[in-house]
């Protein structure tokens, strides 16, 4: 189901219904601190129903399969409902239901951030919600403090409230994109499918958004904490979401005494080894492989890559996490025994999208003579279960080895739609295209132009990575072959070059 699509680590647990939730005892301190009444808070927490359309990377010319699911959202401003990105990903229809009402309000996604799993939606007619309180965003809860998770988990139609204790504050992976890590807060309360997007409250304020749970443990859930929420809301103030920036380095912890000695570091000296610098990243003008990064924005980096912020020891990337494209950060480092310092400008890194799951985008493809060519990314990799060693290496090295500088797209021959014109070449499926008629392929648009020239050559000679024999496609009967293939396979359009 849709509600499980990005929550692969979730498991189902028991939940409480609204009547049980109201009877949960409140401490005198908590009761006094909660500003709006619980019943008012419930009204501001809405159930979200989504009808979605999932792109089909196996038959990219088709519209994709339809799916659906439910989640939770909550009101944070006038016609502003915050929820998870995975709740409304690939949405074709969004309906919002208020607590205690059966009316379904049509809504739309205004902003969506797949890299931090947050989205902002609005209803077409806000009049029914005008008098509801807006939930305010608080601060990160302290360890061992109590929080409440409100939402609409599966197993019932009514609101549910569970209570838990903050057990860990960490920097960890977000399952929605499978490529991004941010600050997370772990709580010992179940986060079930349908809870996603719901508020986690403490003293009447939002301290997190419920978004994923842990399959291997009972009553263990995770919430997106307020620094991530506030950054998302700040980012979209100009009307668009610009995504996260990144240092673009791979740090290596310096625990080993021998390694510290080699780099002339004392037992208590700060610093981590820069094991790799991604070409073209924010750090590439300043850092080199083998440098010792000692501080970020004057925050000393310890041997495990952590820094202190507001009394908490967090991953050093948390400094960058709170900045935006165009902001600067100061790096202190040691190179060849010499202390150095340089300020860099932070920026996004589009090639990293190769390893991030794509949502709300149509698959790109070319079909010519029954050959289906598609750009490589994690969606394609997973859909076709590509097992060619050379393709795996291209996928893994695309960012780390800077392949993106020469090849914006890596085209894969994913299928051969059978026709007499392409008989005997199905064995090439699963390989990456290197060149067409002697011209190295750099992106899908170039490939399309080469396969659809003004004057057709006698043959298309397609060279594949790792193959000694080129694929030969005759062009004499190409037009009639394309017609047969379109009819047989229901191909209404032979290409899509844009997402």
Automatic annotation (TrEMBL):
This is Trypsin-like peptidase domain-containing protein. The keyword Flavoprotein does not apply. Residues 1-18 form the signal peptide. It holds the Pfam family PDZ_3. SUPFAM superfamilies: PDZ domain-like, Trypsin-like serine proteases. Residues 358-494 form the Protease Do-like PDZ domain. It comes from the Bacteria. Keywords: Hydrolase, Protease, Serine protease, Signal. Residues 267-346 form the PDZ domain. InterPro entries: DEGP_PDZ, DEGP_PDZ_sf, PDZ, PDZ_sf, Peptidase_S1_PA, Peptidase_S1_PA_chymotrypsin, Peptidase_S1C.
């Amino acid at each position: 189901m849709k509600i499980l699509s990005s929550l692969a680590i979730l498991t189902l647990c028991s939940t409480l219904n609204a009547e049980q939730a109201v009877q949960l005892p409140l401490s005198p301190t908590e009761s006094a601190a909660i500003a709006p009444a619980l019943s008012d808070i419930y009204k501001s927490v809405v159930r979200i129903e989504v009808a979605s359309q999932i792109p089909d990377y196996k038959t990219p010319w088709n519209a994709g399969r339809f799916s659906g699911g439910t989640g939770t959202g909550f009101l944070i401003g006038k016609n502003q409902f915050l929820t998870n990105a995975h709740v409304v990903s690939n949405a074709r229809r969004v309906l919002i239901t208020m607590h205690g009402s059966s009316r379904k309000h049509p809504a739309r996604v205004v902003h969506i951030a797949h890299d931090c799993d947050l989205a902002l939606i609005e209803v077409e007619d806000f009049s029914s919600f005008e008098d509801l309180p807006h939930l305010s965003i608080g601060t990160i809860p302290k360890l061992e403090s109590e929080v409440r998770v409100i939402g609409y988990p599966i197993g019932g139609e009514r609101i549910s409230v569970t209570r838990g204790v903050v057990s860990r504050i960490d920097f960890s992976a977000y399952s929605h994109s499978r490529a991004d890590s941010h600050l997370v807060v772990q709580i010992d309360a179940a986060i079930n499918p349908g809870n996603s997007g719901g508020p986690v409250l403490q003293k009447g304020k939002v301290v997190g958004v419920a978004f994923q749970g842990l399959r291997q443990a009972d009553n263990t859930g995770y919430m997106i904490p307020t620094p991530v929420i506030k950054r998302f809301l700040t980012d979209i103030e100009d009307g668009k979401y610009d995504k996260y920036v990144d240092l673009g380095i791979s740090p290596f912890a310096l625990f080993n005494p021998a390694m510290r000695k080699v780099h002339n570091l004392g037992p208590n000296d700060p610093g981590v080894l820069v094991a790799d610098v991604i070409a073209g990243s924010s750090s590439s003008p300043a850092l080199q492989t083998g440098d010792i990064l000692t501080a970020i924005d004057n925050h000393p980096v310890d041997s495990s890559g952590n820094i202190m912020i507001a009394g908490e020891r967090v991953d050093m990337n948390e400094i960058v996490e709170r900045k935006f494209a165009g902001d600067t950060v100061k790096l202190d480092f040691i190179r060849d025994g010499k202390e150095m310092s340089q300020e860099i400008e932070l920026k996004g890194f589009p090639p990293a999208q190769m390893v991030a799951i794509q949502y709300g985008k149509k698959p790109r493809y070319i079909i010519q003579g029954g050959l289906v060519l598609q750009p490589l990314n994690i969606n394609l990799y997973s859909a076709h279960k590509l097992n060619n060693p050379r393709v795996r290496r291209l996928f893994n090295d695309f960012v780390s080895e800077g392949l993106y500088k020469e090849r914006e797209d890596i085209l894969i021959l994913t299928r051969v739609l059978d026709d007499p014109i392409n008989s005997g070449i199905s064995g090439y499926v699963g390989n990456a295209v290197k060149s067409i008629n002697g011209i190295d392929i750099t992106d899908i648009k170039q490939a399309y132009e080469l396969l659809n020239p003004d004057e057709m050559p006698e043959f298309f000679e397609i060279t594949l990575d790792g193959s000694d024999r080129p694929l030969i496609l005759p062009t004499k009967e190409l037009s009639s072959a394309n017609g047969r293939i379109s009819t047989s396979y229901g191909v209404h359009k032979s290409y899509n070059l844009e997402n």
